[in-house]
Amino acid sequence: MTNVPLVPATPAESLRRSVSGRVLESGDPGWADATSGFNLAVTHRPDVVVAAACTEDVVQAVRFAGDQGLPIGVQATGHGATVPVEGGVLIDTSSMNALHVDPERRTARVAAGVRWQPVIDAAAPYGLAPLNGSSVTVGVVGYTLGGGLGPMARTFGFAADHVRRLQLVTADGAVHEVTADSEPELFWGLRGGKCQLGIVTELDFDLMPVAHYYGGGLFFDGQHAPAVLHAWREWVSQLPDRANSSIALLRLPDLPDVPQPLRGRLTVHVRYLYVGGSDQGERELAPIRAIAPALIDTVAVTPYSAIASVHCDPADPLPAWDTSCLLTDLPAVAVDALLAAAGPGVEVPLIVAEIRPLSGAVAGTQGSDNAVGGRGAAFNAYVVGALPPPLIEATPAAGRAVIDALAPWATGGTLINFHGCDTSRPIDAWSAETRDRLDALHERHDPHGGFRFAQPHSRLR
Questions:
Q1: Is residue 200 domain-shared with residue 294, that is, in the same domain?
Q2: Buried b (16+ CB within 10 A) or exposed e, 52-69
Q3: For 78-126, what is each residue's pLDDT tens digit?
Q4: Does residue 440 lie within any of the structural domains?
Q5: Residue 1: its pLDDT value, please?
Q6: pLDDT of residue 425
Q7: Total count of domains within the chain
Q8: Where is the FAD-binding PCMH-type domain (predicted)?
Q9: Which residues of the chain have pLDDT under 70?
Q10: pTM of the complete model
């Protein structure tokens, strides 16, 4: 009998034997879905994808990357994707969907791939709610690691302020159970550091005792933008912490799934949420309702399970470009500058130009011994536009023009979750002291830069 030499296993084949999830190479079924995400403008091109099913799969993928000298990227939903993963190993955690709510402790535990809506639905029967983002299709872990500025932030603070435990896989493949007591420095850095320190595979966090809210959206015709924006600027500074609001200039496409009064025109969207009785919530909102007739008014007593209706963020993937800046103040002249760049009479390919206040519990110190940046700012300005091929240059130019118009009131920094796709601007989401502390953690836990596709702490990386 002739001996047939054995064909050596490829690296990907050896990896398949060590994980329970799928291992994909270019051309395999599922490759296109695994290498794209919510932002269709960013497509990853790794050497191999590991669709992890559990923490042990993440461990094996990280160890494989280390043994092969390959960089590591990670993605759950792709909402925060800004720079494509080029080569290396992309760990897709979207199938890690374990979720448990403890109603007695008022906490939830989620695996790395869980999105916000399932958490909201699981907590609702107990009269509880998470500090989710404005989009309920965003992944819980990535959002929280970046701080987490959601619809109830003025009332309860950043989502990161309410984390109790994290399970972390570091670059050496070790699994860390991270709490304030077990590993206080990692616990500090993971909450807001957004995250060159490893891959968080589980997260425990507090739930809030909120079953319903009084809120929704007020949509005004664009001709009323100056009056509404100037009134909102003065009104929002006087709100109690139970009241939450943001405002946006909207240019929604003329498509059948867009409400007819909002199609293909400039409108102003005032988002509002009051945690408490509807009578007081209505009284607080009355000054804004009186400014002009609303095209649409959805403000009402609403179960928390319908929280997505406050911001009405898109649920379907699209190619997009976004950027932001933090503001020290929003005087009348800043509102005028925003209107001049994106208000009535200006043709710009932007879907949203919004302002969110960073006041109330967001600015407070309770629960804030973490790496979340931006607490000293007064407002966050954020713009996003569609990025199909015809707008590859026009959308970034229009977005930068809005941010440039607000430059006289800018801090020079951003919130890391809102930094966006503008690679022409350095990431400056933390104070120098916080950034140095994060860099020291990174040097300790990932000295060879395995997680180099993560958003960097330092301007030098």
A1: no
A2: bbbbbbbbbbbbbbbeee
A3: 887 777 889 999 999 999 999 999 999 999 999 999 999 999 999 999 9
A4: no
A5: 47
A6: 80
A7: 3
A8: 42-210
A9: 1-11, 365-368, 455-461
A10: 0.94
Is 404 found in the same domain as 261? Answer: yes
d(CA 328, CA 320): 27
Give yes or no: residues 291 and 182 share one domain.
no
Is 434 inside any structural domain?
A: no
Residues 296 and 259 in one domain: yes
> Which domain covers residue 263, as residue numbers?
212-418
For residues 208 and 231, what is the distance between their CA atoms, to the nearest angstrom?
A: 31
Among the candidates 209, 233, 264, a domain finishes at 209
What is the pLDDT, as a whole number, of residue 3?
Answer: 55
